[in-house]
Amino acid sequence: MDNLQIGFSCHSRNYGPGTPDEIFGFIQKLGYAYIDVDSVSTIGQAEVIDNPERQAEVVRELCEKYELRPAEYFLGTVLADGEKLETSQPDLRKRERMLESFERVCRFAGLAGFRSIMGSAGILIAEEGFDRSFEHAAETLGKMTAIAADHGVAFHVEPSQHSLLNVPAKAVEMAQRVQGLRYTLDFLHYQVHGYDQRETMKLLPYTGHMHARQAAVGWGKCPFEYGEIDYDAIVKRLRGLRWNGVIAMEFWSGPAETAAGIHAVEQTILMRYHLKGLVKKYYR
């Protein structure tokens, strides 16, 4: 009998501001088993770098109190001396400082019990050009992957529409280039620009974590009923890959969504219900 399973997580930033206690408590009430923790407004990156042990204790206590398991720490770009630094940063000294901060984040994540950390894939540095920006990012991501592994944590990046990996083929190239690097894959970033989903699905073998929400060409974060992402095909392919992992519901309403009456809780519950049905179809 296959011992394959998919867990469901909730992004801590989905439902607006609140104290960590309020956020963890609300996500528990919604019936999630896992939580993805934001590094901006939930458990701040600056505080983590300053005292990894203390912040890990905070996360452990919250997870124990609310019976949640920490899935991924949503880090993004890394802070060093108060500056956000990209993995494609051409200044070697800045990259070294960034790696020092990242090691402290990994210490926190390992102690807190996170499965993974999600960092930045890197952006185009105009004066460097694409190829050199890609080379700098690949070198840095390789070092970050190794540092995370030393702390028992997987390192992921999100191949987003604003990153160097804004074309599926470039994301495949980076995954093949950096041994051990895995992705937190969100189909929205490619669907919104009209990429064929079959191209994006080529990233599934390199995926360690996923974000789930609906999107349509030209319409990011559209309501579930207008969505064009075929999650049936995705879950079926995950089963074929014998994928074990966690899918996080990620949907927060900005001014446009709020004005249109799109409610984040409704969207995440609809998406989770849909995915649970697909997991039952293909994984049971």
TrEMBL record:
A GO term for molecular function: isomerase activity
Keywords (A to Z) from UniProt: Isomerase
Superkingdom of the organism of origin: Bacteria
Pfam families for this protein: AP_endonuc_2 (PF01261)
Protein name: Sugar phosphate isomerase/epimerase
Signal peptide location: none
Positions of the Xylose isomerase-like TIM barrel domain: 27-262
